[in-house]
Amino acid sequence: MNNKQLADLLENIAHLLEIKGEVIYKVLAYRKAAESLRELGQEVETIYQDGSLKEIPGVGEAISEKIKEILETGDLKYYQTLTAEVPPTLIDLLEVPGLGPKRVALFWRELGVTTLEELKTAAQAEQLQSLEGIGPKTETNVLRGLESLQHRTDRTLLGDAFPLAQRLLSFLREQPGVEDAQTGGSVRRMRETVGDLDILASAGDSQKVIEAFVKYPEVAEIVSRGEIKASVVFSSGIRAQLWVHPPEHFGTALQYATGAKDHNVRLRKEAQEQGYSLSEHALVRESDQEELHFSREEEVYQTLGLPWIPPELREDRGEIQAAREGRLPDLINREDILCELHSHTTWSDGKFSIREMAEAGVERGYQILAVTDHSRSLGIAGGLSSAELEKQLEELQAVREEMGDRIHLLSGIELEILADGSLDFPDQILAGLDLVIASLHTSMRQPREKVTRRLLNAIQNPHVDIIAHPTNRLIGKREPADLDMDAVLQAAAEHGTALEINSNPRRLDLSDVYARRAVEMGIPLTINTDAHSPLEMDYIFYGVAAARRAWVEAGDVINCWEKDRLLSWLKNRG
After folding, report:
1. Fewer CB near the last or first residue (10 Å), C or N of the chain?
2. Cβ-based neighbours of 541, under 8 Å, separated by 6 or more
3. Considering only CA atoms, which of 324, 182, 352, 360 is closest in space to residue 257?
4. For the sheet containing 408-416, what is the strand order?
């Protein structure tokens, strides 16, 4: 098993133990171990061979023995015993929005519900209402939650697919005779979710490259194999296709494999208007049928009189027209990010101290780090009371003095927007902080008008600087809040409140569509990681990718501003 598969297994054990009603410390132990495995910088198999399993955070004697058993046998007796007692299909019920382990256990023990289909049948028959604490409203919400699950897809998060693609590209580029290897499709366009991985290689001998590809260590199944193409399934379940092209054809093939369908259709029309026909193989001049081959895709665009169009823009959203008219944006890059304005520490649900997070900011070259732990009402995240906030500020000041001019620390809070639309702290507390982020986490299924009004109340508060992850979506897991985004964007424009692109690949919220509208309306953006650990600060890569898809330039993003400009902007608010 790879790290992700091991982490998923431990996470499933935690779910089943919680449904069973085990003591919470045991549940949390498995969750902590699963989280650590997902964040490892190397394969757990290597760590096991070194005899260092117990050095993984959260992996003690008992869990290390279980990991050892899995790696040695491919199975775990403890899991088999647990699933004989608690049906593993109950884990699927936890995917239903609003259902926690206690209610799942109640439905199982009292009604014998073990699958999503059985839950739907019971809810439609109004059987859930017969249980203590379950009323018609809850039953209706269960049916709505089940309906939302049907809209989920089998697509993979970019945050899972991209690292695999990069490992594979590094492997292919090392093979003899390979001149280049690149991703195509959704991965190269940095879409938030990915179907299959499309990989292209440039080489004279296709068979040697394909032979290496199908023997790549993470390949679990060879689906097909031909002269220039092979298809495999990785142990993570992700499918991938490799095409091997002669070097002189690689540019045309890469252009074709990268663009969305509509982009390629429009580019072919552009070619036709100039007397060419364009395919994945060549650009053909219609006057004499001469085939023009290109080793670099820039040459395809250049021949058509266009500048190279960054892959993230190739969605047929006006990019070809903009290229023709010299209006392509100067897209933001990772190097433009100078600050992290949304981070958590051990004062709420973060895993590292203020000092450790500050050091991580220094390592990444940041000028500013804002410490924005949760406010009191988000109890599940250990939100701070006003008294705890005062104590945190004392520690923050001490770390400021220790760090000197290595990094500028901002005092902040991630402020909960309550169900009635009020904010978690009064204005006098907010006024004493350097930066205030407001966000929605609870009561997300309120009617559209009510949940929108909550967000508008926060935007209109002069002490609120940023709205974090505005729709609170989790891609493929939780639907975005039903917000009137026109009203939200208009309010943000009127009050100059920044909207966040949350870089966590499970969120990427604000979406690229709304981020582009925000830029067009002059709304300031901020790209943050919502980091709970130093490793999560590296999620900034995905936030920048989402911003590039939204045609965002560095000047549109407040944490690309120089330190003095940003501090002045914050000071003049409120």
Report:
1. C
2. 334, 503
3. 182
4. 339-340, 368-371, 408-416, 435-439, 466-467, 498-502, 525-528
Tell me the C-alpha distance between 285 and 66, whole Å: 64
Cβ(178)–Cβ(203) under 8 Å? yes
Count of beta carbons in the 10 Å neighbourhood of residue 506 = 19
User: Which structure tokens are listed for 90?
Assistant: 């109950």
Q: Where are the alpha helices (DSSP H) in 39-157?
A: 44-49, 61-73, 77-85, 90-93, 101-111, 116-124, 136-149
Full DSSP string of 247-263? GGGHHHHHHHHHS-HHH
The label of the residue with tokens 């309010």 reads: 491
* 302 close to 292: Cβ distance less than 8 angstroms: no
Output the six-digit token pair for 558: 């407040």
Q: Crossing angle of helices 540-549/158-173, nearest 10°? A: 100
**Given a cut of 90, is residue 202 above it in pLDDT?**
yes
Three-state DSSP at 108 gives: helix
How far, in Å, CA of 131 to CA of 111, rounded?
9
Q: Is there a contact between 416 and 425 (Cβ–Cβ < 8 Å)? A: no
φ, ψ dihedrals at 208, nearest 5°: -65, -40
Q: What is the mean pLDDT of the chain?
A: 93
Confidence of residue 40 (pLDDT cuts 50, 70, 90): low
Q: How far apart are CA 83 and CA 442, in angstroms?
A: 32
Alpha-carbon gap, residue 510 to 297, rounded angstroms: 31
State residue 153's pLDDT score. Answer: 58
Which residue is it, tokens 């085939």? 291
Grade residue 487 by pLDDT with cuts at 50, 70 and 90.
very high
DSSP per residue over 347-414, as a string? TTT-SS-HHHHHHHHHHTT-SEEEE-PBBTT-GGGTPBPHHHHHHHHHHHHHHHHHHGGG-EEEEEEE
Structure tokens at 276: 């060419």
- For 431, how many CA atoms within 13 A lie in the half-sphere containing its CB? 5
Cβ 181 vs Cβ 209: under 8 Å? no
Supply 472's token pair. 């609170």
H or E element in which residue 267 lies: helix 261-273
Determine the Cα–Cα distance for residues 27 and 349; give it in Å rounded to an integer.
Answer: 17
The pLDDT assigned to 257 comes to 96
What are the φ and ψ backbone dihedral angles of 95, each rounded to 5 degrees? Answer: -75, -15
Task: Check if the beta carbon of residue 221 is closer than 8 Å to that of residue 232.
Answer: yes
Q: Where are the alpha helices (DSSP H) in 177-260?
A: 185-188, 206-214, 250-258
d(CA 85, CA 98) in angstroms, rounded, equals 24
Hey, which bits of 9-53 come out as E strands? none
Q: 35: exposed, middle or buried (C-beta count within 10 Å: 0-12, 13-18, 19+)? A: middle
Rounded to an integer, the average pLDDT of 488-494 is: 97
Q: 409 or 132: whose pLDDT is higher?
A: 409
- Nearest CA-CA partner of 540 in 316, 359, 304, 360: 360
| Whole-model pTM over 0.90 | no
The pLDDT tens digits for 391-428 are: 999 999 999 999 999 999 999 999 999 999 999 999 99
